[in-house]
Specification:
Length: 360
């Protein structure tokens, strides 16, 4: 039975460091939903997950699973990990090396008192789910990394946990395997209908796997939204940059019109950008823009620019272009590489994908 997970005002300060590793984080994962926490190394992803698991005792805050409070230090509630009925998959292949695939997957059921036909059926179903039924009697030491992670996954799902917790489960795998298992993971979790909290620093993994993505930085949850919202309406400059909007153009707001405004940049030229109500006329802003949203043309409507460098990558070309008094990156999709270094280009930057944020 999968359950809703509620994390309320979670805060964790380790005794050895004054700074909060997790700083007032709140979110809810609906039953059957996959939420991915995404952020750079050290931002507090693992600590958050370990607090949910009961492996870490938070300084304050609450963990509520399926309506039952499992962690509430203020009230003296800290249910131990083994009594939370959670499944966990980690970066390292946490399989028992002296056992076969079948024995590994059977173990959690046996330890819960499942026997006989029910045990055999449960194990077989879990192995079929991760496509390892043919490997049931192999010692796990004779499996590939990807297969071992499948065993770990089967083992953590076989007893139908309330919630599945995954901490960078793909990061020890080679690139190709990683992509395959990434796609499989979502399919498998969805087929069982598990509630899942998945932690990674890989943005493409987050987009492919998550129903919603929570972007973290310095212990704080900056934005929790669907992948399309995160990619099309990033809440701040960090979320924009972390998800690939690496071009930043500085300027000042000169007029406002609804959710948009006109920004005067260093060259004196004006560009239209999306902006929140917190940005009045006169505010200094930084406009973030994805390289793949920068349009290049030989001539026509747009800002006058010049190609500085060109890096041909076969299926795409990355240009560094001088425009708007600064230098930005532009991505041309396809194998054509139409613009030579030094050539004049017209640069278009669609207002919907220019996001202005306050200078912090
Ligand atoms: N046991 C600990 N004692 C003291 N500080 C810790 C401990 N565990 C983690 N931290 C600190 O808490 C912060 C958050 O760590 P955490 O492991 O949650 O980050 P993360 O987002 O999972 O990073 P990564 O992507 O590298 O796994 C870091 O600054 C880390 O150094
Ligand atoms: Mg971590």
């Amino acid at each position: 039975m999968s359950s809703e997970l509620r994390v309320e005002k979670l805060r964790k300060i380790f005794a050895t460091t004054a700074k909060a590793a997790v700083d007032d984080v709140s979110f809810t994962i609906a039953a059957g939903e996959i939420v991915v926490l995404l952020g750079p190394s050290g931002c507090g992803k693992t600590t958050t997950l370990r607090c949910v698991a009961g492996l870490e005792h938070p300084t304050s805050g609450k963990i509520v699973i399926g309506g039952t409070v499992y962690t509430d230090p203020q009230a003296g509630v800290l249910v131990p990990p083994r009594n939370r009925n959670l499944g966990m998959v980690f970066q390292s292949y946490a399989v028992w090396p002296h056992m076969t695939v079948r024995q590994n997957v059977a173990y959690p059921l046996k330890s819960r008192g499942v026997k006989g036909a029910a045990l055999a059926k449960g194990v077989l179903e879990a192995l079929e789910l991760v496509e390892l039924a043919d490997y049931a009697d192999r010692p796990v030491t004779q499996l590939s990394g990807g297969q071992m992670q499948r065993v770990a996954l089967a083992r953590s799902m076989v007893y139908q946990p309330q919630i599945l917790l995954l901490d960078e489960p793909l990061s020890n795998l080679d690139a190709q395997l990683r992509l395959r298992l990434r796609d499989d993971l979502r399919r498998i979790i969805k087929r069982v209908g598990l509630t899942a909290l998945y932690v990674t620093h890989d943005q493409t993994e987050a987009v492919v796997l998550g129903d919603r993505i929570g972007v973290m930085r310095d212990g704080k949850l900056l934005q929790l939204d669907t992948p399309t919202e995160i990619y099309n309406q990033p809440a701040d400059l960090f979320v924009a940059g972390f998800t690939g909007a690496t071009n930043v153009i500085d300027g000042k707001v000169v007029t406002r019109d609804g959710g948009f405004g006109i920004v005067a940049v260093a060259s004196g030229e004006k560009l239209t950008a999306r902006m929140g109500a917190d940005l009045p006329v006169g505010a200094a802003v930084r406009v973030a823009l994805r390289p793949d949203n920068v349009g290049l043309a030989p001539a026509g409507e747009g800002f006058a620019g010049r190609v500085e460098t060109r890096h041909y990558q076969g299926t795409q070309t990355v240009y560094q272009v001088t425009v708007l008094g600064t230098s930005i990156e532009a991505l041309e999709v396809g194998s054509a590489a139409r613009y030579a270094e030094g050539s004049a280009v017209t640069v278009s930057v669609p207002p919907e994908v220019c996001w202005a944020y306050p200078v912090s």
